[in-house]
Each structure stands twice: as C-alpha cells, then as structure tokens.
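task queued by scheduler; priority normal; single chain, no ligands, no partner chains; default sampling; output format set to structure tokens
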Amino acid sequence: MQQKPTISIIVPVFQGVQTIERCLDSVVAQNYANLELIVVDGGSSDGTVELLKQYADQISILISEKDKGTYDAMNKGIDKSSGDWLFFLGADDVLEDKAISKMFAQDVPSDMQMLMGKVKLENRNNARVPQWYRCSLGSGIKWRNTVHHQGCFYHRSVFESGRRYNLTYRILADYNLNLDLRKKETNWLYRPVHISTCSADGISKNFSWSLYQEELSIKRQYLSSFAMIFHTLWSSAKFLFKKFG
C-alpha cells in the first residue's frame, strides 16, 4: 500500500464573501491528513479577506492581491503548491463528503497524471446544462471540454515543465490545457466518485458567442484545417440551439 499522497487544493476567489465559507468548510471537513489548502484572493473588498483570516489555522497559504482573473489566480496557486496532486475548487463550489479519501482509497498507478471523477451541477438556469458531468479525456474532448476542473486531480508533473493556464483565454483556458494534455497522450484514470457540487451559472455556462469564438480559437491549435470546417459549423449550430432552441 502506497503512502497517501499530499493534495494541494487551490481556491481562487474574488468578492466571494457570500459563498467562500461553505466552500472552505467542505475542504476542512475532508479530514484528509495530507492536505494543503491554498486560497488566492484577487484583492476582494467585500469582507472576503476578513472571513479568510478566520480560517488561518486551516489555510496553508493565503495570497491576497490584484490579479488578472481566475486563471491567473490558479497559476499563482500552482506556483505556491507542493502537493503530489493539484485540485482546483471554485469559491462557490463544495467538495463532497470524504471525496478525497474515496478518490485515493486505492493506489493510483505511478504513470497516471490525471485522476477524474464526476461533478454535480446546481443552479441550472439553462435546461441545456446537464445535472451530472462525468469527466473524461477521451476523443469526445475534441468536440467539447469533457474535463471539469472541479472533477479532476492533476498530478504535479503536469505543471513541472512550466505548463500553466494560458491567460490569453478568459473563459476556456482549462479547455486549452486539457486539449494539450490529450494531444500529449496523457495517462488518465476515471473513478466513479462524486467529487464536488458546482454552480452552473458561471460564464462558461452562459453560451455566449464569445464563448464559442474562444472555443474555436483554441481548437485551431490542435485540429486540422479540414476538421475545423466541421467544428465551426458545429459550434454555430450549438450556439443557435442553446440560445434559441
């Protein structure tokens, strides 16, 4: 039996006083011995920082300064992390009871770089958003992002080469990362564990045309010109269907 790995949980937050307490409580309640909690605040002025100070004994690293958005905060968390596995949790999301222990109840093969489970989506204002999100790095990721970052543990080797979230992408930098990992034939493993419950009212679930433009911009790096003809038509059809269907 391998020694239980250290998990770095990185929580980006900005003006999150209404939700961050619920999020942090779900992390503290994990009762997982080898846990590093990193909170990266973007310079909140709504009381978030004062609330975070109440968790000083549970937060391993707290950064509070202006940043360039969520992905910049996540990159800062990566730079400060020391865990064997990294996990990103939104300030309005919660970890399920004993989710970490369940994911690592069995040894993870030494060549694995991504360990995935499933995510439940709440506050679904758009009927097109599914209630459950089963993460996968299979071929379907060429069509849409099938890796929800609140449902995936990344081995720190993923980031050791200097790989970070590309701040060029404001909405889908995680999709860009996951497509790159798919292209590199990264080893991944799915376990049927409910890892987190997340809000479905974020910008990536609003189905704006800017979302699909960014998606197409990312795909151009990884797909052939021929394939992009179909993906452009597909994205246009998705946009129309989800907005007006």
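post-processing summary
- The mean pLDDT is 92.
- The CA atoms of residues 90 and 100 lie 16 Å apart.
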